[in-house]
Amino acid sequence: MPDDFLGSIEFSEESGDRTPEEFIDLTHDPDILYYYILDSKEKLISGIEIDADGKEDEVLVHAKVEIFQSVIQYVEAFSIYYLAYIKGREDLIEYLISTQPKEVKTFYEKLRHDREEEYLDEYDIDSGYRDLMETLFGYRFMSEEADEEDLEQIDLEESSFDSIEELIEFSAKILDDRIRTVGEFYLDFGNAYNAVKHGNRAIPQTDGEFQISSDDGEVVEMGVDMEFVQFLCRHEGDAYITAIPIDHLLEHSLNIADTVHNLFTHLRKIAQAAIDDEREFSVPLFEPIESSSESERQWTKVWNQHSVIILPVTDEIAGIMGESEVNRTLACRLHAEGNEMVIETENDEDITDDYPILATISQQGIVGLTPRPRVNLEVNLNLTDLDVQHYLDLLELKDATADGTITQTKLRDEAVGEEFALGELETMMDLSSIEDPYDRELIEQLAILQTITETQIPAPMELIPPQIEVIEDWAESDREIEDAEQAVEELQEIGDDLDSTIVFIDRITPDQEVVQEQFVGMIPGRIDFDFEFETEGGQEQFEEMMGPSQQFSFPAYGYSGTHEELVSYLEEDIERIHEVLAALGVGTGGVPDLRLQYTIGESGFWRTEHTLRLQIVDTSQSHGPIECQLCGEITTDIQTHLTVECDVEPLS
C-alpha cells in the first residue's frame, strides 16, 4: 500500500487525530447490520401489506431469504475483521479491502479440518492460532499476576474453577467452538447465499410436497407441513438444487446472527481499547448456550447427485436413508495426481499384481449442503504384495497426505473407462506406518528399472549393501536398455543367495482359523529349529516335516503371555525371536501355548523369503484345545466330543 494512502483526508474524532486505520476501527459500527436483521425479523409479524397478486406466501418466503442473505453478509463482515486483526491491525484498511470471501471460505475450511496453522503460514504469521485468538479477545489481559482492580470483574467463588487459568481455558474453548460454528454455517450455506446474490436464484415452494426414491426404485410420496425455498446452486461447475424449510433456515440464521453479534462486539471492544486507553472493556467469559426447543428438533439431509433437501427426521425417511448407505469393496491401486488421491480399479474384489490393494469405500452422507459425498476409505494392504512402482506411489501419496496436498478423491474404473469424483475423505487413511527406510532415489531408480526391463520388481523390505551398490551404479550409468537389463540380472543373482524369514504373530480360533495377523519384522537367514523332544519318535517326525514339506505346523509350549505382549516385545526388537524360540519346546500332549507355522519360501527377486507364524489361540468365544481325560484326544469342542466322538465309556 502506498505511503500516502488516504493521505489527503484528515481523520479525527472526539479524542483527537487518528491514523486512517484507527479512525475506521473506532467509527465503523457493524451493529447497524445486526439491528437491521432484527428489525427485518420483527416486520415479518405484520406480513405482506400490499396486494401481491395472490403471491403473498411466496413474497413472505422471499423476505425470510433476505434475512438469511443479510446474516451471511454479517458473518462475512465479522470474518473479514477477524482475519484482518489476525494479520495485523497496523495495516487494517489494506486487509479489510483485500480479504475476499474466497479467503474467508479457505480459512473456515482449514479450521474445519484443524489445519488453521496452514493459513497462518501462508501469510507468514509466526504466532499460533490459539494464542492469536486469545489475544484478540483479551484473554492475554487476564493472569494470576494481574492487579486486583483488573480482575475484580471475576468472582471465582461463584464458579467451579480454582484459578484464572482454568476459567480462561474453559471460556476460550467455548469461544473457539463458536467461531467454528459460525464457520460451519458459512461453508454449508455459502452456495445458497451465492444463488441469491447472483441472479436471485431462490424459488419459494409453499406446498411442501416431495417424492423420494430409494436405491431399489421405491418412490415415497411425502407431504411436509412446511414452506420451503429452493436454491439453484453451483458446485464445481455443476448445477444442483438445495431445498430448505424456510422457517428452519430463518431460525438457524438468527441464532448465528446472535452468536456473531456477541463475538463481534467483544472483538471490536478489545481492538478499540488497544487504540484508546480511556475506553473501558470487559474480557468476554463465554458459557455454553442452552438450545431452544426448535433447535432440538432433528433434521436430516436427503440427496441425489442433482439435489439436496433438508427434512425433519421421521421413521419413514430414516428407513430410506439407512437403505441408501453405499459400501463397495474392490481391489485397486492408489496414487496421487495433483491434489487428488486416485483409486484405480477394474471393479473386482480379488487382488492381482496390477491391483494389489483391497479397499472398502463407504459413503457417510454428504459435505455440507452439496451433493458431494462424504467418503470413508478403509484399506487393507500388505507391502510384500506390492511391486516397486506401487510402493513408490504409496510413498508419494503418504507425503502428499502428510503435507495437506490431498484434498479430493477420485475413483477411476478401468473396466468401463469412467471416473467418479468421491470428493473429500471424511477420514483419510493413515499412511504413516508405511515403512520408508531408504533414500527415495533408490526406489525411484528401481521403478525405472521395472519399466524399462518389464520385469516385476517387488517392493524392497530390506536391502543389503551389494544390492544398493548395483542400484547406484545403474543410476550413474548411461541408462541404456542393456545397462538396465544387466542391473536387474545382478540384483537377481544376489537375491538367489539370500534367505530371510518374515515373522507374523497371529490370533487364531480354537479350530485354527486366523482372525488377526500382525507383521512384526524380518530377520536374515532361514530359521533352524533346535527343539528338545520327549521321545526319539518325536524328533524323527519333526525332521521328516522339515524335509520335503513346504509348510508345517505344530504345537509348542513355554509361552504364557498374551498376543499383544508378544507383538509389542518383538516389534521393539525382532532379533528377540531367537530368544522366544529357544524358550519353546515341542511335546506330544496337553493344551499347547501356541502353534508354530513355518513356510519354506520359493526363490524371489530380492531373496528367498520364508514365513514364520507364531499363532496364539483366542479363547474369548470358545475354549482352546483340551485333552479328553477319558481317551487322551485333543479337542476344541469338549461337549460334542464327550457326547458324540469319545469311544471310552465313562465308568469303564
How does this model look, in words?
The longest helix has 34 residues, at 164-197. The mean pLDDT is 81. Helix content is 39%, strand content 22%. The protein is α+β, with helices and mostly antiparallel strands. The chain is built from 19 helices and 23 strands. The radius of gyration is 34 Å and the shape is elongated. A hairpin with an 8-residue loop joins strand 20 and strand 21. A seven-stranded mixed sheet has the order 15-14-11-10-12-13-16. A five-stranded mixed sheet has the order 3-6-7-9-8, with helices on both faces. The protein has a five-stranded mixed sheet with strand order 18-17-21-20-19, covered by helices on one side.
Strand content: 15-25%
Integer average pLDDT: 81
Q: What is the gyration radius calculated from CA atoms?
A: 34 Å
Query: Which sequence of strands runs across the widest sheet?
Result: 15-14-11-10-12-13-16
Structural class: alpha+beta
Low-pLDDT runs of 5+ residues are none
